[in-house]
Amino acid sequence: MSKSANKSTGTPATVALARTGLPHTLHPYVHDPRSRYFGEEAAAALHVDPARVFKTLMVELTSGPEPLVTAVIPADNHLDLKQIAALSKAKRAALADPAVAQRVTGFVRGGISPLGQKRQTPVIIDQSAAAAPTIFVSGGRRGLSVEMAPDDLVRATHGRLGTISRPGLHWS
Fold first, then answer.
1. What is the per-residue pLDDT across 78-104, written as a single tens digit (0 to 9) for each?
2. What total number of domains does the chain contain?
């Protein structure tokens, strides 16, 4: 796998990842501006099983130690809000408003990456990632995915694994 981003695809996410020295491969693809389901779009464009393409969701917590966490779940699943609240020691969890997510991460909806966020939040990656040799996450813009080993993503984000999703499409 490649270890560096070229100038045409450099984003805060790919720059942060390159600094770690962890192996990864960048996969640019043509983004359709009409697409509403970015993870599925990436899976189709890259000819990859949607279970290996992970979407990044920003989650607001109520009465927890952190106001926001980053959830990384398979594109073909939806977020289990009760489970992420429990793992985050919070009373409740809700998807963050897209404007809040953009302000905190520096990335637009559909391009949010768990890597290189403007203000890094705790990262929880769905346990299902551990079953794959590599997974795909956003490279920090629509039309760019990063492929890497799940353990390396945990290391790069200082994240942790947890069961935070359930099968089902288009809910989150």
1. 999 999 999 999 999 999 999 999 999
2. 1
pLDDT single digits (tens) 44-85: 889 999 999 999 999 999 987 789 999 999 999 999 999 999
Query: Does residue 3 lie within any of the structural domains?
Result: no
- Residues found in the chain: 172
Is 172 part of a structural domain of the chain?
Answer: no
b/e map of 63-86 (b: 16 or more CB within 10 Å)? ebeeebbbbbbbbbbbbbbebbbe
CATH number of residue 87's parent domain: 3.90.960.10
The verdict on residue 64 lying in a domain is yes
For residue 156, the surrounding DSSP H or E stretch is helix 150-157
Q: What is the DSSP code string of 11-31?
A: -HHHHHHHHHT---EEEE---
Q: Is 158 exposed, middle or buried (0-12, 13-18, 19+ CB in 10 A)?
A: exposed
